[in-house]
Write a structure and sequence with these properties.
Strand content: 5-15%
Number of helices: 20
Number of strands: 15
CATH class of the largest domain: Alpha Beta
Structural class: alpha/beta
Distance between the termini: 36 Å
Number of domains: 3
Helix content: 40-55%
CATH superfamily of the largest domain: tm_1862 like domain
CATH topology of the largest domain: pyruvate-formate lyase- activating enzyme
Length: about 500
Amino acid sequence: MDILFVNLGKENLGIEYLSAVLRQNGFITELANDPGLFSRHDNVLHIPSLARFFSRKEKILEKIYKKKPPVVAFSVYTQTYGWALDIAEKIKSVLEVVIIFGGIHATLVPAEVMKNRFIDFVIQGEGEYALLALMQNLRRGLPKGHIPGLWWREQGSVRHNPPVLIDDLDALPLPDRALFEPEVCLHADYMILASRGCPLSCAYCWESYAKKLYGAQHYRRRSVPAVIQELMIMKKRYAYRTVMFFDDVLFTDSDWLRKLLDEYKKCIAVPFRCFGHVQYFTRQIGCLLKDAGCYGIDFGVQTLNERIRRKMLNRHETNVQINTAFSICDDVGLHYDVDFLFGIPGIDEKDYVEVLTFMKQRKYLNRLKCYNLTLYPNMPFAKNCLRQSMMSAPDQQALLTGKIGDWYHEFFETDVVRMRQKKLFQKLFKLYGMLPCSARRFLVSPRMYRLFRFVPNSVVIILQLCDGMRKQDHRFTLQIKYYLFHIRRWVARGSARAIAMFQRPR
């Protein structure tokens, strides 16, 4: 083995592309993964009492100590950065190993990451060819200075080169799905990227920083033949039953989308889902998606308060555009999820009630999805929070070091009443999609929604499970399979350990 990747969470396409480029050039790669089941890093089902039983952190360290890989690499989000630092420091205290950090957090604040002396290199930006060049140089003992995007130490100081964009996405090898085969159900759902970057510049999203780093050319799209070829090869290999287009917005170009979906119907013909944005969504696109087998779109709305959405989040779509997009979905029979952010400063009870009113007649609404506002360092939103004293200097430092910034952190809200209010609406939002329109109208009537404060969280989870089974919702089924897959593995490992202990000579 030449390099071992360490990951926290679900399947990581970035790591799969890194591994594919390395394997194409003769390197041997391996993965140590902790799915983070039920932990604060699990943005679907957060149950702290179960998290410690399913943690694989110690197993990851045991694997690394046993295998002694020459290079260990981490791809980190702000949410996973602290976890990765802890593992990296422990590895370095035991083994003579090269440690490399990349990913979103390392791209946003590479100088901060390099302050950790146990980290040897940081790769900023797209890392496929930068990591390959670094690995080749390490093997040959050559200087590091010419590699784009690389941060390193030389003669007591930190040096770096500007990152370079990968122009031709079609030239990349197919992602190394074999790396994650033991970790995910690849036969159930296949995740694919048909583009990189995003045409939007949301103040809280790291993609806006990438656009600043690379310029307008950051948003690139693969060719239709390249996308279809990957899907055909992987369908033959894994016989997947659904597809997830993981692009930030799949349908920014209607001509490209039409060509893609025409080929998709002929060559792939399995249900798929995608992310979308209301500014690009038209009746024509809705009909194309529905006809090709789309079973769900995820629209990020975040809040219906237009002033806050525009000024704080730098999102300029109007509620009229949002209403038009949802009405088109209802007309063509296309199910959709809607993302809302909790924890945005200035959002109050009337804003939550406006969501209930706005969504009460939606026939094909599947779910209102609840996320806490996730802060990323060096982003316009975080900088504005610091300028407006909504975030203190110590808070900013904690964000840089990964001590805050997860999906469940109560970052801005300290008022007890408002926190209770937030929890009330989160429970209601999670169940709203399963309610008939008559029940929604009842809840919107003067403050009847407040009855949900008495609904236990366990009941919310049970009702969500029942609704998913009733609808035969593909997305729900995939989540259930994911948890059952890892629970079975956990039980199997526990049983194997118990048998080994029983059979051990006394």
